Amino acid sequence: MFQTFVFSCLCLLYLTGAFCVEIYETHTISAMEGDSVILHTDVTDLQRDNVLLWTFGPQDAHIAKINRVHNEMFHNGADGRFRDRLELDSQTGSLTITNVSTELNGLYKVEIVIENKVSSKNFIVKVYAHLPIPVITRYCPQNPPSSVSRYELLCSVVNVSRVTLSWYKENSLLSSINVSDISSSVSLHLEVEYQDNNTYSCVLNNPISNQTQHPDITHLCQIHSDGEIRDLIQ
């Protein structure tokens, strides 16, 4: 799980008095599907007169609240997506989201009222699906002339989003293609010399994980006794 954040502070004048509002403008957490994510308030012990509210999404849907004044504490989920996934620490107000999925991507906010100070902290949670292993297919010419010295490899993945698919020669990047947030299938071609002894790899990655597949280029497209050219990559 990866986190980044930026902090700023400003004081606002309300009709009821002056409040200093502490705002964490950016706090990003990345996780894999199935992980647990903890959103920390950085409060050590909530007091009786403290009020805490967690919200989710652009509509600021209420998902968790602690109100010690009225001895009230509850946590629930907007539109059912958080069902049985939220754990609220009654002492610190920190929120744990268990068994996260990509539908829980988005903006989370917490506001804590402590005396005349409102502390506001924002989180952007990015959940990534587990990556499939790329599939490599070899394409051999049907009627290769004696001068043919190359064959083509095709690396493919299906139903992926927010990933990059790349071909490497040793540690050098040869080509790559990015996939947006829309789930789709993607393929990337590579031409290889028949007698090439270098190590090639096809890598599928997102910001927090990767999957690598290596073609076996020691086996060439061979002409068998029946005259058929066969793909020898398994």
TrEMBL record:
* PROSITE patterns assigned to the protein according to its UniProt record, in alphabetical order: IG_LIKE (PS50835)
Q: Which residues form the signal peptide?
A: 1-20
What domain of life does the native source organism fall in? Eukaryota
Q: Which residues form the Ig-like domain?
A: 134-218
* Sequence intervals crossing the membrane: none
Task: Show the Pfam families listed in the entry.
Answer: V-set (PF07686)
Q: Which InterPro entries match?
A: Ig-like_dom, Ig-like_dom_sf, Ig-like_fold, Ig_V-set
Which PANTHER family does the entry mention? CD48 ANTIGEN-RELATED, LFA-3
For this entry, the protein name equals: Natural killer cell receptor 2B4-like
Q: Which organism is it from?
A: Cyprinus carpio
